[in-house]
# Entry
Amino acid sequence: MLCPTCRYENFEGEDTCANCGADLAGRDVPQPATEYQTTVLGEHLDRLGIGEFRTVTPGLPVADAIRLMHQEGIDCLLVCDDDRLVGIFTDRDAAAKAVDKRLGLYKVHDFMTPDPVVLRSSDTLAVAIHKMAVGEFRHIPVVDGTRPIGVVAAADVFRHLVGALG
# Structure
């Protein structure tokens, strides 16, 4: 842990700086990020306009899922069992996991990303950007409980930010 007074690198968990004796207690405890609440990053996803989505069942043949994505010009499908989100199938899944496979033999559940990271409509753009960056995601489902209500795409977030910046 870096001392805020003398910039000496201390061991994590130290209460005082080994170099200058400055108080370090509580400095390594995360503080709430409130400074962005009044900026565009503090806007809730409702302001972004949550993207439309298409759902499929886990048992849909993967060839049909890829065909559907191509026909509708979409990059991802939310995989639902009844109304409950169980996975996401993206163009990246198709390209990375299904390439060189006999697609007629497989179902969506064989290639989907199960139990995907999700957002809620009350989440902020900052939360969406953070989850996308950490997980290297381009699409994140938005849910109400376990029921999908939309998809946030990285392209939509960046378009919104550019528009807000003028």
Observations:
- The helical segments are 45-48, 62-72, 91-97, 108-111, 125-135, 154-165.
- The longest helix spans residues 154-165.
- The radius of gyration is 21 Å.
